[in-house]
Amino acid sequence: MNIQTQDEIVDIPEHRLRFFGGPGKMLLPSPATIAALIDRVPEHHLITTEEIRDTLADEFEVEGVCPVTTQKSLKALAQDGSRPVAYWRVIKANGELYTHFGVENQKARLVAEGFTIAVGKKIPRVAQFQAKLIQHRKGAKTMNTQPKIDTRTEQPYVGIRTRVALPDMPTVLPALFDEGMNWLAAHHIPITKAGFIRYYVTDMAGKLDLEVGWPVDDNSVGDERMKAGVLPAGRYASLLHIGPYDGLYEANRVLVDWAKDNGIEWATYQEAGEEVFVSRFETYFTDPSKEPDASKWET
Questions:
Q1: Secondary structure (3-state) at 26
Q2: Residues 6+ apart with CB under 8 A from 224
Q3: CB 20: neighbour CB atoms within 10 A?
Q4: Which of 75, 84, 98, 145 could form an S-S bond across to 240 if both were Cys, CB 3.0 to 4.6 Å?
Q5: Is the backbone of residue 120 left (phi > 0), alpha (psi -120 to 50) or beta?
Q6: 3-class DSSP state for residue 175?
Q7: pTM, full prediction
Q8: Is residue 211 scored above 90 in pLDDT?
């Protein structure tokens, strides 16, 4: 099997014009490029080969990605034990496992991550796989998981609340995160869960009313500056964003559009003429100081 050792962009061959919908450029992806994309898929999530090709076509600004070369590169990754890559998180569009990964091998690895494998057909498939798929929106340069609804218990926290104009957030927020982490260290409170930004009022034209916070076990801690609060129990709609922070606006739009399409209304109330969210927040799971590759940041 000939392996594409380097990425190559070529003209779409004549016999592939119908497949790609016309002439243009086509990417022949190397295993390294495929692996770098799979590395962005979080544990307990999946990606299809179609999504891999669509994402790479967008990122390389070409009309398409060769499906044959993609399959060869995936097979090479599965057979190469020198580079750890979670190739088993790649499935077919219908949820089926890939025979060239070794069905039993892929099945065992997925089960170890908590997936349920439906058997009974010729090729096993991941049960309810749609809820775990990573999606890329054209032009966004980032990926998101499917939106979902889950029920959560209340979470005590401490945080610093402020109002800030949108253009000032890149300066104000890092300073607040530093201040909060220094406060936690000074009070000998370990950081056991990721910090978050809670949004009360999202006035994009004026100032946002927000709070930078950290979950804690003891809701009695806090002072006048770093105040105690609670994220209330209830049903939450959420998705996981993978990529740089400049893609968060788009991720929020995806979630808002999904909620609208599904008849979901956000819990809000009116105060001083403003619409206030009962509980809307972004959790920053990845520490950029420990993971410099922004394409892998999870929010």
A1: strand
A2: none
A3: 19
A4: 145
A5: left
A6: helix
A7: 0.77
A8: yes
> What is the token pair recorded at 17?
């014009």
What does the DSSP assignment read for 114-133? T--EE-SSSS-EETTGGGGB
- Concatenated DSSP letters for 29-44? --HHHHHHHHTTSPTT
Residue 180's SS3 state is: helix
Yes or no: say if 202 and 268 are a contact pair by the CB < 8 Å rule.
Answer: no
Q: Smallest Cα–Cα separation from 177: which of 199, 154, 160?
A: 160
The DSSP H or E segment spanning 179 is helix 169-186
CB atoms < 10 A from the CB of 100, how many? 14
Higher pLDDT, 211 or 21: 211
**Cβ atoms of residues 146 and 48 within 8 Å:** no
Helix, strand or coil for residue 250? helix
Q: Is residue 110 exposed (0-12), middle (13-18) or buried (19+ Cβ within 10 Å)?
A: buried
Residue among 183, 184, 182, 214 nearest 197 (CA): 214
Q: Judge contact between 61 and 7, C-beta under 8 A.
A: no
Contacts of 112 (CB under 8 A, 6+ apart): none
Alpha-carbon distance values, 118 to 24, 126, 174 (Å) = 39, 6, 46
| Angle (nearest 5°) at CA 172 between 167 and 177 | 140
Question: Is residue 79 within 8 Å of residue 122, measured between CB atoms?
Answer: no
Tell which residue, 72, 31, 67, 32, has the closest CA to residue 49: 67
Both tokens of 221, joined, read 């801690």
